[in-house]
Amino acid sequence: MEERSRRPFGTMPDGTQVEEITLRSGGLTAGILTYGGAVRTLTVPGRSGAAVDVALGFDSLEDYRRQGRALAAIDAIALVESGLDRLCSATVAVTAPPEVRVRRIMAREGIPEDYAWSRVRAQKPETYFRSHCGYVLVNDCASAEEFSVRARALLQTILHQTTKEV
Question: Is the pTM of this model over 0.70?
Fold first, then answer.
């Protein structure tokens, strides 16, 4: 990897400057903060070849500081297919029953049921993600609030276990 750019990202309360360093290698581009090595962006080639940012980083240093740790949420398919999952201390497969995924796709994108089913059938099977991830979070909840509670509980478990391993 070679450094492509450095830019100011924020200032810590003690005056320490935090920068975002952008690194590039082939089709991979990573935006890494000098704050704990947090991965802010990770752009990889998607299925169609177009670049896709698979990291769910924050827009401000204050957001990272509020969180208290350097965490990154990255789209599983890109993470696993790129082999970068080997670098993670924990990986989570978020799954949902096929009929739930179809309903959600239809609602989100306004597409017919047969087309939604064809998209779900084109995805890798759930067993693929279960076999490549250390944790599984099933999103079959009736509400976003219920899923949020489930996700927070799993995150707390992961943070507790990974903190003990360090």
Answer: no
Per-residue HEC secondary structure of 3-35 comes to EEEEEEEEECCCCCEEEEEEEEECCEEEEEECC
Q: What phi and psi, each to the nearest 5 degrees, are found at residue 62? A: -60, -40
CB of 92 closer than 8 Å to CB of 135: yes
Place of tokens 């935090």: 18
- pLDDT, one tens digit for every residue, the chain (166 residues): 455 789 999 999 999 999 998 888 777 888 888 887 788 888 877 667 777 777 778 888 988 887 765 555 666 677 787 777 777 778 888 899 999 999 999 998 899 999 999 999 998 899 998 998 899 999 998 888 888 889 889 988 887 786 655 4
Provide, for the chain, the percentages of residues in helix, strand and coil under a 3-state DSSP scheme, each rounded to the nearest 5.
40, 25, 30
